[in-house]
Design a protein that fits this description.
467 residues, Aspartate Aminotransferase, domain 1, three-stranded antiparallel beta sheet, 40% helix, 13% strand, binds pyridoxal-5'-phosphate
Length: 467
């Protein structure tokens, strides 16, 4: 990756410098330069007068953040770069474009709040007041950004979307039952169903006029008596659909008509491109449809805090919420609460800039593929920082059987994953993991510096155009 601009970290060096090394923002502010032991509550010592302002809205207002300078995460035990590289020989894996985490340095309010908390040297149990203040921030963010009117009695805290969704699948599915998934969809839904010991049914979307569209006839036909839940991924990972209110309502009405409960996974809620608008499933007009749903959310994609394990789910229907709660132990951890609350309170401007940057990166990729990769197909994203790219013509030229034989993988897309790593250094996720309709495709995570994305696409174009 752009070695001229980024330093290569050893794991030990990373751990010893992670809290003291900062990257200058475009405004010239070094926002991660924190020495935890020198802290007094609310005031960072040894910094510029601007940064002496206690952690507050004023401290972060008007800053301009730099997402272009590559932030090297290698050696930090991160799954996107370190975990994904592990199966490959040294030097082969160059670009981690898989796992859904961002390569950006996080919002400074998060590091500052964590540093302040770390200066207090005790890690006993959290008081319930901490949950209450976090819940208030959740309500405020959803109210201000998504016009969603939540009440604290409707919300259950969780340490991830996974635990909540697994609890719901268990709660609503009798033995032999199934969940219905609109595909291509997040591979984790199949993992969750396995964990809950239930079956899955796919309803593949159709690509019409450059957009993935629900096949309504197929969706209804799949709503058989053994299907008890419909997972609605809103926005949809990996295709990037930001579902419109009319689409959500239609999915919800069909589910209601067939005695199926909607489980709305809205972890990608905030990452929406210009010209599109996220509608929470719980925001649709039909109250009966909303009352037939439970929504699962987190701010962990928005601010890249998946490792801090903080999420929540909610429902306007106390009976449905109660059934999920019965299967779920609502624990959260102290650092996660501190970081999440800081992000909600002070991180809005950082996120808006990150989101605009990622939107431009989507556009860069669309233009790059159109201009330089004639064998590659592209569908425009409406949201999320994933993109699902069609390599079926490339795979056809390489020969699916030859690819599988050479790399010894189960699916053609897994074998093509290896081909890409060995021939271009680029690691992506195989489309075959995302259910029916994923064949021939690879999922890219575009939440990286555009300098890195340029290298990624240059490397792929040069290898693919030689086939
Ligand atoms: C749609 C979707 N749901 C859930 C998750 C995982 O959620 P968590 O890490 O909170 O368990 C992801 C992660 O990529 C995702 O894309």
């Amino acid at each position: 990756m752009a070695t001229s601009k980024s330093s290569v970290l050893s794991r030990r060096a990373f751990l010893s410098t992670a809290t003291s090394a900062g990257i200058a923002t475009a405004a010239g502010v070094s926002h991660a330069a924190v020495t935890p032991l020198a802290l007094t509550p609310g005031v960072i010592s040894g910094q510029s007068p601007l940064q002496q302002i206690p952690i507050s809205t004023a401290r972060y207002a008007g800053r301009v953040y730099d997402f272009d300078t590559p932030y090297d995460r290698k050696g930090s035990d991160c799954s996107r770069w370190d975990g994904a590289a592990a199966p490959y020989p040294d030097g082969v894996f160059k670009y981690g474009m898989g796992v859904a985490s961002q390569d950006f340095e996080c919002a400074p309010c998060i590091t500052d709040a964590l540093a302040e908390r770390i200066a207090h040297h005790n890690w006993g149990y959290l008081a319930s007041s901490a949950r209450e203040s976090l819940t208030n921030e959740i309500i405020k963010w959803n109210g201000e950004r998504n016009a969603l009117d939540l009440d604290s009695s409707q919300i259950t805290m969780s340490d991830g979307v996974y635990p909540g969704l697994i609890a719901a699948l268990r709660a609503f599915t009798p033995p032999g039952g199934k969940t219905l998934i609109i595909t291509p969809a997040y591979s984790g839904f199949y993992t969750m169903a396995r964990e809950a010991n239930i079956g899955t049914v796919d309803s593949p979307m159709q690509r019409i006029n450059g957009r993935y569209e629900v096949d309504w006839e197929d969706l209804e036909a799949k709503m058989t008596a053994d299907v008890h839940t419909l997972i609605v991924c809103n926005p949809q990972n990996p295709t990037g659909n930001v579902w419109r209110a009319d689409e959500l309502e239609r999915m919800g009405q069909l589910a209601l008509d067939h005695n199926i409960i909607v489980l709305a996974d809205e972890i990608h809620a905030d990452i929406v491109r210009r010209g599109h608008r996220y509608t929470p499933f719980a925001g649709v007009k039909n109250k009966a449809v909303v009352d037939n749903s439970v929504s699962f959310a987190a701010i962990s994609k928005t601010f890249n805090m998946a490792g801090l394990k903080n999420a929540y789910y909610y429902s306007s229907n106390p009976a449905l919420l109660g059934r999920v709660n019965q299967q779920h132990w609502p624990d959260i951890n102290t650092l996660g609460v501190v970081a999440t609350e800081a992000a909600y309170k002070y991180g809005g401007e950082w996120f808006d800039q990150a989101n605009a940057y990622m939107d431009d990166t989507h556009q860069f990729i669309e233009d790059y593929i159109a201009d330089h990769m004639p064998l590659v197909g592209y569908t425009r994203n409406e949201g999320t920082y994933m993109t699902f790219v069609d390599f079926s013509q490339v795979i056809a030229k390489l020969g699916p059987d030859e690819l599988r034989a050479k790399y010894g993988r189960n699916t053609t897309e897994e074998a093509f994953q290896d081909w890409l790593v060995y021939n271009t250094g680029v690691f992506t996720n195989p489309g075959s993991w995302y259910g029916t309709g994923g064949d021939g495709h690879m999922r890219f995570n575009i939440a990286s510096s555009r300098l890195v994305m340029q290298e990624v696409f240059d490397s792929m174009a040069s290898a693919i155009n030689k086939i």
